[in-house]
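If you are new to this repository, start here. Below is one unmodified record pulled from the training split, so you can see the exact layout before writing a loader.
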Amino acid sequence: MTPGARVQAAIDLLDETIAAAGTGGAAADTLIARYFKTRRYAGSKDRRAVRDLVYAAIRRAGERPVSGRAAMLGLVTDRPDLAPLFDGSEHAPAVIAPDELVARAGVAPAWLLAKLDTLDAAERAALLDRATLDLRVNRLKADRVAVLTELPDAAATPHAPDGIRLPEGTKIEGLAAYIEGRIEVQDEGSQLLALACGVEPGMTVVDLCAGAGGKTLALAAAMADQGRLIACDTDRRRLGNLMPRAVRAGVTIVEPVLLDPQREREALNDHIKRADVVLVDAPCSGTGTWRRNPEARWRLTRARLDNLVTLQAHVLDVAASLVRPGGTLVYAVCSLIDDEGAGGFAAFLTRHPKWRAVPIDLPAGVAHGAGIRLTPHHDGTDGFFVARAKAPC
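And here is the target side for that same chain:
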């Protein structure tokens, strides 16, 4: 592909990404993969260059652009070296007209930026940095020192005791350590959430929003694969991905439970007031993961946020019913919006006045509300809020 053709390909992909953001369609990385699957002529350098252009343009535009061309012209504002590639030649974009629409730079849509008012400018800007490639060493099969010796390009993460960091672009799936279940891809912040649960071997633990099971497997390792670990989710496909991962990791204590939304208690009736620890990593806006999914900020609406806050309250109330007297509930969201994080947890304590917040001792983060907040700028992790509460005896 010529340099101009790469720019036009990026514009085409940006058009698809912008349309998908407005309709709830596929994410940018999925669209990029589909695009190149039908264009075998594009080499690895072409694919990398186009991908970099697409994500640079996405990260730059806070508001959803009117078109892929407007998004790319916004990038040209910062990178004037791209302007000559708009020359109208074959496969290249048309010459830039003086009155064309240009996407404005920004961190997020104005209404959403107002929801992040507890973050300073540096914190907000860091939400769109490129994410690190973090992994967790599975202590059921290995230790960090041995894995670091095996993977010379790896380094220990600064906070999580089992975390390692590899260079961006490393092909994880081909590593023997991954194939054999000695490492799992997991952001360091997510590893710290599992650490905040304080689980021990022999406990009964519920991961109420398990998804594909990253935190479930971290909890199982912390429990030395001893006890009961009930992994729940409403998404059959994601929950189905957990058990093959558990087998690879050598985990045997996981019991998957598929939940029916708004009828969760029916499936969990046998677990009422029996869990030592319940983790609620609740569905949320994902503002803390924009480093990985920057177009997500174009998808979020006020109505969607309101629905998420309502759902989080419901899930927390379900979780409270599962905790034994004196047991622990851990609430987490990969969001930096207080409506979902500190505010949502405070609302839970108001609804359940006999519960009390208890401190969390983590090697990262800063106190925020009744919990701890992790941010890309301060901690080098995805953004999270995490808090812990103790059930009345």
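Two things worth knowing about this chain: DSSP finds 16 helices and 13 strands in the chain. The domain at 133-185 is CATH 3.30.70.1170 (Alpha-Beta Plaits).
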